[in-house]
Structures are given as structure tokens and as C-alpha cells.
Write a structure and sequence with these properties.
heterodimer; A: about 110 residues; mainly beta; seven-stranded mixed β-sheet; 11 strands; B: about 110 residues; six-stranded mixed β-sheet; five-stranded antiparallel β-sheet; about 0% helix
């Protein structure tokens, strides 16, 4: 079965650079979530999209932006990177309104800012 | 804000011992989900609880949702080394809403 695909799996950037993380949700899933997980931390909600519209916003810095495209893939754009942005970034997808709203997580993108 | 407290943070057990992790919210939840994350891996869905007082079992795992829908627990009977990982509860406060994760309980099992 198709899973959530994230790319790249690993990314190394320097301070003040920009990064773009991509997420391809499970086909027919209408909701995409972005989470940030620091070492030894729980996943922190950043932002979500439902049917290509932003549906919820969490602790996402102003330096970050995200969007969902017509083919339902989503991109997280991160600018002016800081050392503290180093983390695992997970994308998850689900089917909103479905009885079981489990979120399927991708493998994550490990971002290292040096 | 919406927050889910999970305890304990760490649990070290001998293989064969039982394990329990607890989650609490100060406000009523729409539903609660449980995820397992292996070291270096991604969260993997285990189960979802929706109804007040609901109890679900998956082999050696028992999940409970409190009567007031403010707390939940995961109990593992007779732990095995394959149970190693971090167990997260994740709550939603409205149908289809974002998942708010608890802090996680890291389980280590000594053979």
C-alpha cells in the first residue's frame, strides 16, 4: 500500500539559508499535517491543510510557510534557517470526516542546520 | 492552550514485566489516539479511542479512555524486547482536528 512520501530524507543547510521539504500524502487523503520533532521531544504541530486550504496553524515560525498544491502534495518552506531549526520534520496525512481519523506519518526529513 | 500531559517520561522494565503509560487533559477530548515510535523511526498508529469509558485490546496491549474523556492509558502485559520504543498519546479536541501529542513515554526492556 502507498504510504506518505517525504523528500529529501536528509538535508544539511547553513545558517540563514533556505530549505524546502516536500510531502506526498496517501492517495485520496484530504488532510496533510506538518510536525517538527526535536531530539527526545514529542512531535510539535506546525500547520495543516484540508483540501488544499490551510485548516489549522500551530507553533510555526513566521520564517516558515507551507502550501498544498492541486495534486495534494505539500511543501514546507523554511527561510533564514537557525541552528534551532535542526530537527526531524514529519508530514502526515489522513482522511478527514472518516470514522477512524488515524494519521499516517512519513519517514520524516532530518534537517541539520550548521 | 490545549495540552496533553503524559507520564512517566521513561520506564525501564525487565522482560516479562508489565508497563503502563498515562495521558491527561484538563479539557474534554474528542478522541485520543496512540502511536509508537521506534528509535530513528516515525510515529506509527496503534489505535483510536472515541467513546467515554472505551476499552480496546490488541494482543498484550490494553487501551482505555476515561469516563470523562479527559484521560487515557496504555497497558502492556508481559513486555517483550520488541515493545521497545516511545509511546505517544495524541489527542484531538474536535472531529478531524489537529493531533496534539503528549510528551511520550520511552520504554526500554531488559532481556
Amino acid at each position: 500500500a502507498a504510504g506518505v512520501i517525504q523528500s529529501p530524507r536528509h538535508l544539511i543547510k547553513e545558517k540563514r539559508e533556505t530549505a524546502t521539504l516536500k510531502c506526498y500524502p496517501i492517495p485520496r487523503h484530504d488532510t496533510v499535517y506538518w510536525y517538527q520533532q526535536g531530539p527526545g521531544q514529542d512531535p510539535q504541530f506546525l500547520i495543516s491543510f484540508y483540501e488544499k486550504m490551510q485548516s489549522d496553524k500551530g507553533s510555526i515560525p513566521d520564517r516558515f510557510s507551507a502550501q498544498q498544491f492541486s495534486d495534494y502534495h505539500s511543501e514546507l518552506n523554511m527561510s533564514s534557517l537557525e541552528l534551532g531549526d535542526s530537527a526531524l520534520y514529519f508530514c502526515a496525512s489522513s482522511l478527514k470526516g472518516h470514522l477512524n481519523t488515524e494519521a499516517f506519518f512519513g519517514q520524516g526529513t532530518r534537517l541539520t542546520v550548521v | 492552550g490545549q495540552q496533553v500531559m503524559q507520564i512517566p517520561q521513561y520506564q525501564h522494565v525487565q522482560e516479562g514485566e508489565d508497563f503502563t503509560t498515562y495521558c491527561n487533559s484538563s479539557t474534554t477530548l474528542s478522541n485520543i489516539q496512540w502511536y509508537k515510535q521506534r528509535p530513528g523511526g516515525h510515529p506509527v498508529f496503534l489505535i483510536q479511542l472515541v467513546k467515554s469509558g472505551e476499552v480496546k485490546k490488541q494482543k498484550r496491549l490494553t487501551f482505555q479512555f476515561g469516563e470523562a474523556k479527559k484521560n487515557s492509558s496504555l497497558h502492556i502485559t508481559a513486555t517483550q524486547t520488541t515493545d521497545v520504543g516511545t509511546y505517544f498519546c495524541a489527542a484531538t479536541y474536535n472531529q478531524g482536528g489537529k493531533l496534539i501529542f503528549g510528551q511520550g513515554t520511552e520504554l526500554s526492556v531488559k532481556p
